[in-house]
Amino acid sequence: MSSLLPILLPVLIGLVGGLAGVALGAWLIQRRERLQRQLAFAERQLREFYSPMWGLRREIEMRSRLRVRIQGAAEAAWRDLTDRVPVEDPDAARQLDERRWPAFERLIEDDTTIFKEDLLPAYRRMAALFRENLWLSDTDTQAYYPEFMEYLELWERHLRGALPGEVLTALGHTEQRLHPFYAHIHSRHDALRRAIQLADHRALPKPTPTTKATHEFPEALPEAQTPDAE
Question: pTM of the full predicted structure?
Answer without folding.
Answer: 0.71
